[in-house]
Every structure is written in structure tokens, then in C-alpha cells.
Queue: 2 jobs
Job 1
Amino acid sequence: MNEKLSEPLGPDTAANVDNTTKRDNERDSLFVRANLKFQDGGEEGQVIVRNLSEGGLMAEASIQAARGTRVEVELKNIGWISGKVAWVAERKLGIAFDHLIDPKIVRKPASEKDDIPYYLKKLNRHGEKIKIIKY
């Protein structure tokens, strides 16, 4: 069940998958800062991402968030990803992304150049892959 989806995950798929499906996504343990903001315009702040998969992340945060809250997370080398708070426990929270991402991109050193111009990265708020066609 590790197929790549070409279409965005629906609201019932990303945030409400069962435990079996959640465990199918390979998790990547890491320690990286990310920005978090609430889509309704609430508090903004930094979180520490502790593990990351194609479909979501677990982070430590001092920001208070309720389960089901719509959020956006800015991940290094990817940009802003929208999602929903799937669970909250003490100072940790889980976020289920609306779209699948490639978690390996977050680990890429910032000095490595890619073919995506800065202005396209800003437009790519949902982490979809952009294919650059060179003429």
C-alpha cells in the first residue's frame, strides 16, 4: 500500500485513515524546526518535527492546538503544507497532510540547488511535485 498518489488526498483520507494505513507510511525520525500557523488566523510559532512521513508528521510544540484544527506547516525545502491536527498529547501533536510529500526533500541540505525557481516554490503551497521543462 505504498503507492504514490497523483491526486490530493481527500478530507476523509488524509486525516482519518485507520491505524493499519498510518503504519504503512514509512516514518523518518529527525530533529528539524518548522513554522506552524492556523488556517483560521490564530497563533503562529515554531515546532520541532520529530518524525515525518509522506502523509504527516509528529512535532513538539508549545502552541496549543485542538484535534481537527486546520493548520499549515512550513517545511525546509518544501514550503507550506496544509493539513489537520490528527492528535494532541501534552506538548506533542500529529498532523495529517492534505497532500503526500517526499520526506527525503526535507533532509536535503539547503545549499543543494534544484531546478525549481524561487517564485514557483512560493506558489507551490501544497507540496505537489513540479516538473520543469527545459527548452
Job 2
Amino acid sequence: MSTAAPTSVPDRAIAAKGYAHPDTLVSTSWLADHLDDPTIRIIESDEDVLLYDMGHIPGAQKVDWHADLNDPVVRDYVSPERFQELLRSKGIDERTTVVFYGDKNNWWATYAYWVFQLFGFTNAKLLDGGRMKWEAEGRPMTEEVPKFPRTQYTAPKREDRAIRAFRDEVLQHQRARKPLVDVRSPDEFTGKKLHMPDYPQEGALRGGHIPGAVSVPWARAANADGTFRSADELRAIYEGEKKLSAKDDVIAYCRIGERSSHTWFVLTRLLGYEKVRNYDGSWTEWGNSVGLPIETGGEQR
């Protein structure tokens, strides 16, 4: 059994970066010291769902963002019953600390983290730097799929309103001229492209952005090694450049809510913003909806 510090003790390497809630991140060194901790479950969630099978952090289990978190019929997240079964099957209950990580600067790991929050599962952390940093440091990887005893976890009713925004709420927000953060690529924001660079042109009939939105591509929050920038660097972007405030009522969006979950994590967990919602309908809904306003080109000052 590991003799490392308890999971409730903040990681010193993370605390040094000045975040509002440093306990929501852990470093690769911290996780390496806690691999044998029976109170922890490690969850890998990737854009490339085949990566896990090619090798993963020892003890990690896979959560497929599409198959495990999204309803197969309704454009929505899974029911409490399905979420409950997912956690029971992974050996997770209310006493478990879940550490998420993944590829692409933890892009989909933050999405999984955010969906867990919809069910009130708050005993969760992200691995700073994700899969890329762990691999770059030459830390152990395995193809072995772990098995843990089932739990009796009981999922509460999903509560969306505090951290999730719906189309009509976004429209009211836009009309009230409240802050909107578009985290897509610059070409998606201007309307030049309907999808991310190097991805198929699909998902929306119209290009552009929600009127009044500011453009902050999600990956600006990350360093080259996949770790999050320091709190001062993040404030320089969101507050210095875009004039946001921790007291603002903010809605973030992208194409389907995955990249904006990353920005939601940055604003709420790292900078301490009190009211940020992720509009997961995002551009696939807004850009295809009849009667909703759009803008093209750069930011309107």
C-alpha cells in the first residue's frame, strides 16, 4: 500500500501555480506516488478511444465519452440509472477519489469530469498534463485492464442548471449582453470553417459565432507539455485581454460542448469564477436553429 500523503492534501507542485482550487489538479509525480492507493480510481477518457487499449497508466480504467456518457437515442447525457451502473462497475462510490486524464491536453478528460459534476460527483481531480506528460516523462504504461470490486453507489437525480446552459437560456443571456466565450478555433469563430482544422466539414449549416461572444480558443489555457498555464497567465488571457471577471455570469461554448468543458474547468476550478455554464448544444445546435442570430468575422468591439 502506498505511504504517500492522503488524497486530501494539495499537491505542492500544483499549489505553487496559484489556482483558486488547487485540490482539483494533481501532478504526474503525485499520481505516480498514489498508484497503489485503494481509495483512488483513475479514469482515462480520450478523443481517440483506441489509445487506452494501446497502453495506459497502471490501474486506469476507460470511460468512452460517446458510449458511456451520452444517451444513445436522446441528444442528452445518460440517465441516473446508467451513470450509477457505470460507477458501480468501475468500483467507484462516494468515498472514492477519481482522477481523470486523457489525450489532447485533457480535452475529453475535462468533459468526463464535467459530466460527473452534473451528477454531483465532486470528489474528482484532473491529472495536470494528462496522457502526453505522463508518456513524455517515461512513466509506466500497461495494457492490463484492472478489475475492482463492484460498489453500491447510488446516483442522485442529475442536476443540470448550475453548470449547464440550454439554448433558450443562451439566447436570453446573449440578449442581455452577458459574457459569452467561444472556445473554438479562430476560423470557426469567424465562420470560415464549420469544424475544427483538419476535421471534416460537418455539424452545422451556418458558420460564425453567437453575437457578442469573445474568442478564446480553448488550448490557449495549456502549455506545450499539456499542463495548465499558471493562474496569473490565465488571468492575463481571460481578464487582461477579454475583460472577464470572477463575478461575471459566463457561458462557454464550442461545437458540442467538449472543448468548452475544458474552459469551464479553467474558469471555475483554476480561476475561481462563481458562475460559469457550459452550453453543450453549442454550435451544432445554434448554427442549425431557425431564427437564431449569428455574426461572422472577428469580435465586435
